[in-house]
Write a structure and sequence with these properties.
Helix content: 25-40%
Main location: cytoplasm
Distance between the termini: 11 Å
CATH superfamily of the largest domain: Isopropylmalate Dehydrogenase
EC number: 1.1.1.262
Family: Belongs to the PdxA family.
Radius of gyration: 20 Å
CATH class of the largest domain: Alpha Beta
Number of domains: 2
Subcellular location: Cytoplasm
Keywords: Cobalt, Cytoplasm, Magnesium, Metal-binding, NAD, NADP, Oxidoreductase, Pyridoxine biosynthesis, Zinc
Largest sheet: 12 strands, mixed
Shape: elongated
Strand order of the largest sheet: 3-4-2-1-5-12-11-6-7-10-8-9
Structural class: alpha/beta
Order of helices and strands: EHEEHEHEHHEEHHEHEHEHEEH
Length: about 325
Amino acid sequence: MAALPIALTSGEPAGVGPEIAPKAWAALKDELSFFLIGDPRHLPGGTPVVEIADPSEAPGAMARGLPVLARDFGAPRVPGRANPVHAAHVVGAIAEGVALVQAGKAAAITTNPIHKKALQDGAGFAFPGHTEYLGHLAGRDRVVMMLACSALRVVPTTIHIPLRDVPGALTPALLEETIRITDADLAAQLGQRPRIAVAGLNPHAGEEGAMGREEIEMIAPLLDRLRGEGFTLLGPLPADTMFHPPARARYDVAVCMYHDQALIPIKTLDFASGVNVTLGLGFVRTSPDHGTAFDIAGTSTADPSSLIAALRMAKEMAA
């Protein structure tokens, strides 16, 4: 087991986070160490819990139960129904997890899913999502979201905006910054510069201008310039032919132009075990690639596979 444990945040208490955390502990207790930052009262009845006062106690507690850095969230959990009282505590758990990693008391942070509207309503949460808040805590102007599974890594350049807004948001500066952050972080993980495939914006990568000129006027010139600096880049590639197995064998990560262009292939390949990774933070952050799942919260049917994969990837990346 690693000397330093992974900090796991509570996420939205009304979602499936409190149900998948004990399942992840049961699956991983002999493999790695982590601790939950949250209210132990929110965990399912019968969960073996070891309340700890410091992260250093987590490795020794793993064999006995789920280590919990206990925090009072002010109210019980009602599955499927967000409570505004919880919101500030959910945000606080994220901030505390980041602080523990930055202080060298945790190896990495893995975050359970949050419900953005619940945080906005209950705590005035001013960020579009987890990724942007983590960037704020890390003091970074820009961070990058990567989704990863054993078969594929993808990075969307623009995220969580309407498709009609993508061409305006997709600037040369944004694409260049995305590629540079991806290259730097993966080089540290892989021990060598990654092979980066870059998708086109338009169908067939613009088909030589017949379906759009973004590839000709913006994407291709940028890639040529970065190749001159030593980047290993493929593209711009047609998105409809770059995700089958022989194509994926040619690169380590795919940089895509918008949310669904990146997420559809990875969720098709491995829906249950995809992991959300934030690049550019200066520390390791992973998250299960699913939401709070209010519709099944409280039924004990939530699949912990993605959280298990996220914790394993956090351990590997931290090492």
